[in-house]
Amino acid sequence: VISEEKSTYASISKTKTFAPSTSDADYLFAQLLRNLESACIKARRYKLAPRRIALFLKTNNFLYSGCEVRLNRPSAYPMDLADLIREAFDDLYRKDISYRATGVILTEMCSDLPVQYSLFDDAVRVDKVRTLYEAMDEISRRFGKHPLHLGGSHAIEVSGKGKRGESTFRENIQLFGETKRRHLGLPILHVKV
């Protein structure tokens, strides 16, 4: 038994099952984005970035459909990855199928060190996104996971996260020292920088 905390990862995966199953594209994409955000949070914690991202949708019949996206440069910032994930999701999603889970796997992990940008990369935007996520990570350390999130994942907040789509019991109560504002996740809109 190794009692030390794990410090290296070959891949990082996050998946969520939800009830009831749904064919609502906005809700499914919101779940996929939330998985991406959670995986990227973990990658940034260990100062890693993926070169590839695999994503999958699980149907109500436990059948999987998935795809893999290769990145131009390693990145652990969901704002950089959201457009690629949207394109891949649009290829996978079928409106006549009911889905019960989504998942994201970050693979080919490497150190998240500054890289030489290509002629086609917007270096100023990349630096702004990095600075933004440094601030978001600090806010998360103070207020818990996902106090700020991409606007595309806001459908989770609207539809509820509990069984059958209602708010969970925990969301309806406030513990000593909590406020509605501190308890509530606030969306961050995906805007061009």
Written account of the structure:
The protein has 193 residues and is of the alpha+beta class. It has one domain: DNA polymerase, Y-family, little finger domain (Dna Ligase, domain 1), CATH 3.30.1490. The strands form 3 sheets. The protein has a 4-stranded antiparallel beta sheet with strand order 1-5-3-4. It has a two-stranded antiparallel ribbon with strand order 2-6. A two-stranded parallel sheet has the order 7-8.
Features:
193 residues, alpha+beta, Dna Ligase, domain 1, 24% strand, globular
CATH topology description: Dna Ligase, domain 1
List how many beta strands DSSP finds. 8
Task: Please tell me the CATH architecture by its name.
Answer: 2-Layer Sandwich
Instruction: Tell me the span between the first and last alpha carbons.
Output: 47 Å
Radius of gyration: 17 Å
- The structural domain count equals 1
CATH superfamily: DNA polymerase, Y-family, little finger domain
At the first level of CATH, the class is: Alpha Beta
Order of helices and strands: EHEEEHEEHEHHHE
Average of the residue pLDDT scores: 82
What is the overall silhouette? globular
Number of helices: 6
Percent of residues in beta strands: 15-25%
Structural class category: alpha+beta
